Amino acid sequence: MAFDLNKLLRPHIAQLKPYSSARDEYTGKEGVFLDANENPFGSITSGSYNRYPDPYQHALKEKISTIKQVPAEQIFIGNGSDEAIDLLMRAFCRPGKDNIIILPPTYGMYEVSADINDITINRVNLSEDFQLRPNAILEAVNENTKIIFICSPNNPSGNKAKRQDIFKIIEGFDGLVVVDEAYIDFSDEPSFTNELSNYPNLLVMQTFSKAWGLAALRLGMAFASVEIIKILNKIKPPYNISGLTQETVLEALDDTSKMQRMVNDILEERDYLLGALTKMEGVQRIHPTHANFLLVEVSAAKEAYDYLIGNRVIVRDRSKVILCDQCLRISVGTREENDRLIQALSHFL
Ligand code: PMP
């Protein structure tokens, strides 16, 4: 399929002049900076925050580039991957005209962002075992379909998509295919970032909110062609990543072994939780997972959810979601948290 980024892009964005500051022209560190109406005397807090942060997060991207083996100019950093999802829709989908394809049951923000931006949602459900249906997906494409969102490992089911199905969709669609890998660090799957040089219509998303344990900082990544990344940079709010976040994450990235240790701990706890739930009466099914959560079918999900809330154990009730009848989505916690969940749930069921 021929992919033409200029055809995909909303015409006015091609013409758009992005926000620019004097510091886009003067990139030196030394100087008298009287261009941005900052406070020259310092910050009200300890730490040095009186100057605006680097809008393009150069230092952070260099480090991410080394870790992920993706060139820095092919990396976009967003205020969570949620920001990247929203910017993609604003860049490529004309409100009231264009559509995206999502594959329910899947991550909720694709739909929320599309609704906010007045973009039509075309749904192609996963199969009963939560696999992609590439033929049905490609059949659902029409001339106004701009983006297909694939989530793997998938939220809320936890399973990963078959690689050959993802390839089939990327190869059979002349719009943008987003592969959301928010949970990839919990699986043994190679990232689709390895495929970026083969497919100009591929964008891969990852996040610091899960394995890295930095959800409160709000930091997500999108990896794609230089041209697509330029578009995202052009339309993002100028200072979308705070100075505090950039500094903190730069430091965190020095110790990737800590992240790996936490992932191993989560996988161990996942096995523990799985073992305990498997033995529990009233648990009908636990779906295979490659993420840090379990989708668990119980005899009465809403009642179980309410009972757990009453015991201050909070899980996600997914029983109204398509293909997730009577299912709870349970995040893997610490041993103490998992024991609290196990105790409360076994009491109820
Ligand atoms: N994608 C998926 C599949 C998710 O589950 C989530 C968060 N729950 C996100 C993206 C958003 O992550 P972030 O915190 O980076 O916005």
From TrEMBL:
| UniProt xrefs under InterPro entries | Aminotrans_II_pyridoxalP_BS, Aminotransferase_I/II_large, HisP_aminotrans, PyrdxlP-dep_Trfase, PyrdxlP-dep_Trfase_major, PyrdxlP-dep_Trfase_small
Q: Which reaction does it catalyse?
A: L-histidinol phosphate + 2-oxoglutarate = 3-(imidazol-4-yl)-2-oxopropyl phosphate + L-glutamate
* GO terms for biological process, alphabetical: L-histidine biosynthetic process
User: Signal sequence span per UniProt?
Assistant: none
- Which of UniProt's keywords are assigned here? Amino-acid biosynthesis, Aminotransferase, Histidine biosynthesis, Pyridoxal phosphate, Transferase
Q: Which family does it belong to?
A: Belongs to the class-II pyridoxal-phosphate-dependent aminotransferase family. Histidinol-phosphate aminotransferase subfamily.
Name of the protein in its database record = Histidinol-phosphate aminotransferase
Q: Which organism is it from?
A: Echinicola strongylocentroti
